Amino acid sequence: MELNRLLLLTSFLLHIEEGHASPTRLVCDNRLIQKYIGEAKDMEKRAGQCQALPTLSCPVVLPLVDFRLQQWKSKSNETKRQEILCDLALLVGAVAGAQRQVTQECGAMQLSQLYHHASSFLLLLQTFSWEAGPSEPGCSPRSMEQTHVTIIFLTYRQLVQGKLRFFFHDLAKNLCNQGQGGGRNPQCRGR
């Protein structure tokens, strides 16, 4: 199991353009999160185009990833990270559950890609902590049961486009403005 986690993390870091393979670069270069949002939208679109995706006979449990911006802003970055970790862990479990039930080639391929992306973000956030401090114990994210495969992709897109993007934005305020990340766009340095 640990080898699989290491391979996923390595794959994710190799997926990032050379020169951006650090948490600070991921946070400080806004183009990367926009790229991942675009990929999430593309996966959602491709899954919707799969013919005859089955309704899952055993529902999967998905995190409810909506949030109120004012409440989100009032949380510490570590609390936000823990919340996203819980959401991602639940989502990865839901994707794995759906994978066991979907045998149709198109749907199975899209779920495999989603599993890879969601697992990569989960591993990245588990591996790197941007703040020192105690971790909050346990996970109990708000959740819902779902039998429609396309909703799994919608949930992932909403998580990346919402909590994850705002989390990276909040981290960038601290990391990038302190000179640790070289600014929001590394190509503009020295100009």
UniProtKB/TrEMBL annotation:
Belongs to the EPO/TPO family. One of its GO terms (biological process) is positive regulation of hematopoietic stem cell proliferation. Residues 1-21 form the signal peptide. Coiled coil: none annotated. The lineage of its organism: Eukaryota, Metazoa, Chordata, Craniata, Vertebrata. It holds the Pfam family EPO_TPO. Keywords: Disulfide bond, Glycoprotein, Hormone, Secreted, Signal. This is Thrombopoietin. GO terms for molecular function: cytokine activity; hormone activity.
